[in-house]
Design brief:
The chain contains twelve helices and 23 strands. The protein is α+β, with helices and mostly antiparallel strands and 654 residues long. The chain has four domains: 2-40 and 326-418, no CATH class; 42-61 and 231-324, Beta-Lactamase (2-Layer Sandwich); 63-221, Beta-Lactamase; 425-653, 4-Layer Sandwich (Phosphatase 2c, domain 1). Strands 1, 2, 3, 4, 5, 6, 7, 8 and 9 form a nine-stranded antiparallel β-sheet that branches. It starts with 6 loop residues before the first helix and ends with a strand. The model has no long low-confidence stretch (mean pLDDT 83).
Amino acid sequence: MLSRIPITVSAPLLIGVPVLVVGVWLSLMWNAQSHEAVRELADQEIEQIHAFASSKVGDVLSIPVRVCEVNAHLIRMNALDPDDLESWRPTFARVAHSFDALSAISWGAADGRTAWISRYPDGSVFWALKAEPDSPTMLEWRVDERGAIPLTTSSEFEFDVSTRPWFTTPRDRGEPTWSEPFVWVGGDGAEPTLGIAYGIPIYEPDGAFVGVIDADFSLNDLSAFLRTIDIGKTGVAALFDEDGHLLATSTHHDITTSEGERLHASESEHALIAATADYAAHADHESDRLSTIDIEGDTHLIHIAPVGHEIGLNWSLATIVPESDFVGGIEASLRRSSVTSIAAVGIAVIVGVVAARWLVGPLLTLVTAVRRIGQGDLETRVQLRHAPEYTNLADEINEMAVGLQDRMRMRESLSLAMEVQKNLLPAKAPKINGLDVAGHSTYCDETGGDYYDYLDVSGVDDDSVVLAMGDVMGHGVAAAMLMATARGVLRSRCTTHGSLADFLGHLNEMLVHDTAGQRFMTMQLMTISSTTHEIRWASAGHGPPIVYDPKTDSFPEYEGGGLPLGVMDGEEYEEYTESGIGKGCIILAATDGLWEAKAESGELYGMERVHKLIRANVKKNAREISETIRDALARHRGESAPDDDLTFVVVKVE
C-alpha cells in the first residue's frame, strides 16, 4: 500500500507521525508528573499559608485577653483604684497606644460608674467618664497624641452600663467571657465596624461584685491583616463563627449588610466565600486537613480549621485557592507542545527528525528534572537555551527548587535555634548543701519562651540557691529571642549586689526599652536557704512559689507580685520573705504550662492535681518528683500534643 503513495508524502508521514505520537506521549507523561509534583507543592504551600494565618489570627485575638488580665491584676493590686476612675486615664491611654488593634478599653462598676478610652475607625481617640453613680450623663473628651484632654467636653450623652452586653454578660456569667460580635459606627462618616468584646468580672475577697474590666477589638483589623497574606494568585481567606456569619475576609467585600446587620458567609457577593460556607455547613472539617471542592467546574483546594478555641472562641478559618493558580502554566505549556508536535507532521523527513529532537529533548530534560526534584534532589537545576516557553518553564522549575531549598534551610535554622536555646538552659542542677534541686523544660514548638536558671548572685552563700523562672507571651522565635535577652540582662546584673526586686526592676527597664511595650514576660525570682530555712521571692506577674510543708500537710498561700516585665517602665517590685521552710519541705517554681496542660477532652490538669501529686510523692527526691510530674502530665494529655511550653524546678529541703 505504501508503494502506491508518493515518497514526498510517505516519508514525511513515516517520520512525522511517529514524531507526533512521541511528542504527544512525552507531553502527556510530563504533564502528569508535573501535575503530581506541583500538586504536592501546592498542598504544602496551602498548609503553610493556613498555619501562618491561623497562628497570626490567634496571636491577634489573644491581645484583648492579655490586656484584660493585666488590667484585672492592676485593679486587684489597687494600682487602678475603682473609687478614682479619673486616675485610670493615663494607664488606659498607654495600653491603648501600645495595642492599636483594640478599639476600646472599658470599666463598668457595680454602682453604675463607668470609664473607657475608645478608638474610632477614623483614628480619633476619646476618653469617657461617668464618675457619679446617680448621674445619668456620660462625659466624653477627645484625647490628643500626648494622651491629654481639653478642659471642655467633646460631647455628653445618657448612658446606663447595666444595659450594655459587654458589662452584663461577664457579670451574669460570673467568669471571663467574650461577647457576641456586634456592629457599631464610630467617627464622622465612618463605615460600619464589626467588633467583639472580652470582659472579666472583678470581685472583692468576700465575693462581692465590684465591676467588669473589658477590651473591645475591631474585626475589621483582622480583615486588613488577611489581605496582607499572599494566598496563591486568586485565593481568599475567610474567618467565620459557628453559625456561619462572617467575621473577616481577605477580600474587600462587605461582611455586614447595608442595614448594619451581620452577613452570613453564604450570602457573600464573593463566589468562593459563598461556596466555602456551603462546604463548611455539610463537611466534617474538625480534622483540620486539606480537601478539594468543585466550584463552577473548577477544582479548588480548601482548608478549614478551628481558631481561637484556646481563648474561648468557637471560630473557623478557611483558605480556598483555585488549583489552576498552581497548575495553569503547566497546562498552557502542554497545549503549546501539542501544537508544535502536530506541526512537525507536515515537514520533510530531515526537518521532521530535527523538529522532533528539538521538541522532545527539552521535555525530557524538564520531566527528568521534575522527577528528581520530586524524589528530593533539590540541587537539580534545568539549564535550557531553547524556546521562551521552555526557558520560562525551566526558570519556574528552578525557582520552585530554590524555594524548597529555602524552606529546608529554614527548617534547619529552626533546629539550630532549638539547639542553641537548649544550651541557654542549665545543663544540670547545682549541688547545694541541704537542698536537693531538679529542673526541667520542654517546648511545644522548635523554640519557646519559657526560661529557668540557677543564678550566681553576688553575696549569696553556698548554702542557698537562687532560681529564676520566666514565661514569655507567645511561642516561637520571637519569644525565644526575648527569653535570651532576658537571660543575658539578668545574668549580667547578678555580678552586682542587690535585692531580687532590684533585679526585676532593672530587667523590666531593659525590656520596656527594647520591646516598646509590644511584648512582655512574667518572671519569678526566688532564693532558698538551707541554713536560715527561709525563702525570699519577688514576682513580675508570675505569682508566688508553691510550697508544701509535710509537717502540717499544707500548702501555704502567699500573696504579692507586680506587673509582667516589659509592660510599663518605672514599675517597682517588692521582695517577700517566708520563714519556717524546714526539712522535707518541697518548693515548686513553674510556668502555667504545668497546671494548664490539656487532656484530649480539653480538661486542664489544674492546681489541685499538682498539690495531690506533690503530697503523694513527698518522700521521693527532687529528680524523682520531676520525673513523676512529667509522667503524670503525659498520661493526662494522652495522644494530644502539648500546646504550651512546660518548665519547672523542684527543690526539696534535706
